[in-house]
Amino acid sequence: MQMLPSAVLEDPRYRVPAAPPAGAGLAWLRSQAPRSCDGPEHLRRRATVEQVLSSAVVPNSLADPTVALLEAFGLPAGRLDDVALVAAAYQPDAPQSPGADAALERLVAAYGGRSEGTAARLCLLVQVHAAMRALIGQRRTGAAGPPVPVTRRVAPDGTTVEVDLADASFGRGPHACPGRALAEAWAEVLR
């Protein structure tokens, strides 16, 4: 797969890979994620994520970031295992499992059903669980580079390309990470 520089993230000809509509499981979450759409739909979903993010706070202890976010969103720490299962299978190219789909359904039920607010909370939990752990690990060891080294886009010719995030740790352009300030603050506290 071709690797391109992060500048393409600001080029509107390079679109995010769209997730097909789905009614259940991880496919539903992917289909509702801001990262899976462009244009007005992306702006609406991103605004929901930003609103949900406003209720998250930087922990003042060495609390697990996923647990802190679960509690900020009104769920108990006991849901951590479900979030871990979902996070491990969230990316379409990751190994998929019925267990991850079942975990996602338990989380959806805990939030009262499918809605944009539920999808926003779950997307944030998945990102915190995966990327924050990587970021904190890097800060603790002094490792360089972005916690998530690549992302994907669909090029104007319809091919999927990888985008190198070495110079854009939190992305750039319309899909840049909306939780950058919170992530950096958390990483400083937890390093």
From TrEMBL:
GO terms for molecular function: heme binding; iron ion binding; monooxygenase activity; oxidoreductase activity, acting on paired donors, with incorporation or reduction of molecular oxygen. PROSITE patterns: CYTOCHROME_P450. SUPFAM superfamilies: Cytochrome P450. This is Cytochrome P450. It comes from Geodermatophilus normandii.
